Amino acid sequence: MTDISQTQPTATHDWTSATARRRVRRRYAADRRLQLYGIAAIGTAVALLGVMFTTLIYAGYAAFTTTKVELGVFLDPEKIDKDNIRSANFRKIVRDAFLSHFPDVQGRTDKRNLSKILSSGAVYIVRDYVVRNPDKIGELVTISVPVSDPFDQLYKRIIPREIQALSSDRILLYRQLEHRDVLSVQRGVGVVKTTLFVDPAQVPKEGGVEAADYQRMINEAFRSFFLSEPSLSYREILSPSAAEALKNKVVANPELVGKTIEVNLPLSANYDNLLQKGEAKIRNPRFRSDKEFAWFDSLIQRGLISTPFTWELFFNADSRFPELAGLAGALSGSFLALLVCFLLSFPIGIATATYLEEFAPKNRITDFIEVNINNLAAVPSVVFGLLGLALFLNTFGMPRSAPLVGGMVLALMTLPTIIVATRAALKSVPPSIREAALGVGASKHQVMLHHVLPLAMPGILTGTIIGLAQALGETAPLLLIGMNAFIPSVENIGLTQPAMALPTQIFSWADSPERGFVSRTSAAIIVLLGFLVLMNLLAVYLRRRFEKKW
Amino acid sequence: MLTYLLLALLAVTIAAYFAGFTKARSFATAPGCSPQHSLSGYHGAFVAAWAGIPSFLLVLLWLLFQGPVIDSLLVSSLPPDRVEGLDIGQLNLLVSEIKSVAKGNVFSEPDAVVLAGAERYNSWSTIAIWAMVASVLSLSVAALFIARSKLAPRFRARNQVEWITSVLMIVCSLIAILTTIGIVASLLYETLRFFSMVSPFQFFFGLNWEPQIAMREDQVTSGGAFGAIPVYVGTMLIAFIAMLVATPIGLFSAVYLTEYASSGMRAVVKPLLEILAGIPTVVYGFFAVLTVAPAMREFGEFLGFAIAPNSALAAGAVMGIMLIPFISSLSDDALAAVPQSLRDGSYGLGATKGETISKVLLPAALPGIMGGILLAVSRAIGETMIVVMAAGIIAALTLNPFEPVTTVTVQIVTLLIGDTEFDNPKTLAAFALGLVLFLVTLCLNVIALSIVRKYREQYD
């Protein structure tokens, strides 16, 4: 038992001792560390946001310009019937007009490859131009038409003319050979010094050394070279003539059979380039021949290529060809769906919120309604899509892919947002307004309709716009009710016509394999984000401008 | 046709308003008449409401029942020797063939029964539409006259209109309940149909998920292809990765913003984080495909191991970015709700700011933060577009984050994109998954909200 009274006097703490100072330092270091974690977390979040926007803009800005070629077309009155313009063979007219820019190109294959520089939509652009301007028939007109996707990408330097011929693990093989010091250039040809056993078992009785299986011998030799890659064939590395070279050597000296010899075998073209030029490149497989580059360069030199702003992005319908695809269908579909969503959710939301906030008695039913509204706000969006599919499409037999159904599903999703915003706005109207109106003899409904709702309207509108902005970006429910149909024209627009929406268009473009759709998708995302920013700015403006502080 | 009918109905309603209004005006201007109870506008609104609302409801009911009624008429009118021995599916096929012929989409030469049926279908449809127009408009006009005849100087039009408004408001607020009922009923109905084809035991405990096989005619329910365990595991794996990214970043930024940051910095950073919450998920999905997945694959190559292009890691990480603002704002609320007195007490004992946060504030705010995390988990499980674009479709039972896995939402979307037939277990499986998803997220939300609410009451 220690004596307590004895320890008490020493309990006064020495704040200046080294241990105490160290402890304080450590405590403040922990504080600073926590602060650092916070800054790092915020920095990470903001950096991720920055990376996201940067990559989207970097990938998308290219789609806001289209590479076009000035095409001089002679609208031959013999080929185009003035009274029946659409029946003319515009495909041939456009092709001939384009080929006439290159009088020295001959041969069917070359002509066909050359005409593929033009987008396949050029025909319709020329046709529509003639339909619009029938008086130009008989004249030589200049129409600018888009080039096809590979050349569009090439001109914007998104894809290169040449790509690496060898993948990184193939280059690794080369490095291994280099490391063994067996590579050399002899008489302008890259060779690899190979130690090889001229296997008598591979030399048949009939035919002798002439008919021996030299390929197999080389393969055996290479297999022992690269033990880690048992499936490797020497064809990857050596030129196809390697077996021939070995054969010549053995035929010249038949006594080599059964001996282990060292022989220089020629490298394949790609590895030869790697050895002699330091890099191996081949033509980008998206182009068919080097002539295409020459033709395209000559178009550039003649000043026929230009990159105007892509108005087509906003005015064209969807297309399988990225250089022609536009957002007109998606924009109109989204607009119609949002219109339906607004027309349904705005009145219903206000009515619900007003009833719950101002009129409803406090009982189980109204409690149940409130619980339901709160839960609906948290239900995953894809479940609303299932509801739309099972109820609206399957049970009620409403049309598939229609903006009407899309708008109805979006309205159900937007309702909780609008209800919550409306209730908050109603709550913020001070009781004095209500009491004054009641005092001069207004009925409860009149107080609501004439005084409280107008005063709460800015708040309600702000909430509605934010809810609509959410609905504009919603994708999954629209996918389930089929609003991702491919619709290549904007002629049939209606509430019950099949349509696309902006986010589903983004989804379907993102799924397309063509390289040009990467920038189209990013551009569509930029347009979508632009609309969202506009809507949110409008909401902020409404709040700042009209909301009263009581 | 329907558009014109609705426009006509609108015109009748407007006319009804003026009919009521002018009649009420005539009382007011008539000499020696007793004073009017309600303003003339209320008289007009009363007549308009009676002329418009019942007829509009009639249109909706008519549209709802017209299709099934005509279908059953059509089926009963078909010659019995043609209908005999057909099951429901074949009968539906016949009916839809007749309908498509009736619309003029003739692909091959239809037989006489179909042609005759199409003719009857067309004539009945025309009759039904004209009958609807006639009955709706006559109901509307009749209601107009009856309501107008009721108007009198002492007629309590305002009370009547207010009663109608109240009823309308109650009906509107019931829509929230109806939506919930609709979700539960439709999911439950299709799920029960699914379980009549595939046993629930297999669905909940089976280890093999290959729903596409069921497309083949002879394999409707054979093969054990609807075991959803891999799908659940994949969902949880991706949600776990997402929470691993979102929780530390969200929590630390909330701590910094509430306790350390100057008000100027808060004013800049908070909206920036909210931007993350406002970006549509399809954009995150594209970001995952365009940037994150290739970057991860290259990083894996650099380190010397393979990361699949649609790995769980990429999808989960991007989903985590999406959840950052969610966790940060809910933790922010929870931290801000801790009373100042707790902070002051801690400072008074000589604690540093960091000690106050880690020893006092975080424990006090823990229920709120946990509620926020649960809400975020529910969000992660229900999130669709990111995983549809960035995660896999093949259901592999693995916990390796570098391999592709699939999720409940991915399966729902892939099973239901394109044409859907409601008698196929492949389609119905999506509804069963949807029901599971709905119930799980509902439970998570209820638990989270009750934690948050309970905790709030403690300090208020």
Question: Describe it for me?
Answer:
The complex is a heterodimer of chains A (550) and B (460). By secondary structure, chain A is mainly α. Chain A has a 3-stranded antiparallel β-sheet. The longest helix of chain A has 43 residues, at 18-60. Chain A is extended and about 125 Å long. Helix content of chain A is 57%, strand content 8%. Chain A has helices at 4-7, 18-60, 90-99, 108-115, 122-132, 149-155, 168-180, 214-225, 242-252, 269-277, 290-301, 312-315, 328-359, 364-378, 381-395, 403-428, 431-439, 444-473, 476-480, 502-510, 516-546; strands at residues 68-74, 140-146, 162-164, 183-186, 189-197, 260-266, 281-283, 305-306. Chain A folds into 4 domains: 20-65; 68-152, no CATH class; 168-283, no CATH class; 328-546, MetI-like (MetI-like fold), CATH 1.10.3720. In chain A, helix 3 (90-99) packs across helix 5. Chain B is mainly alpha-helical and 460 residues long. Chain B has 2 domains: 2-155, no CATH class; 229-459, Orthogonal Bundle (MetI-like fold), CATH 1.10.3720. The longest helix of chain B has 41 residues, at 157-197. Chain B is flat. The model of chain B is unreliable at 219-223 (pLDDT under 50). The interface between A and B is large, with 87 and 89 residues.
Query: Strand order across the biggest sheet of chain A?
Result: 2-1-8
Radius of gyration of chain A: 37 Å
Please write the CATH class name of the largest domain in chain B. Answer: Mainly Alpha
Show unreliable segments of chain A: none
Helix content of chain B: over 70%
Instruction: Please identify the top-level CATH class of the largest domain in chain A.
Output: Mainly Alpha
- What value does the average pLDDT of chain B take? 87
Count, helices of chain B:
16
Structural class of chain A: mainly alpha
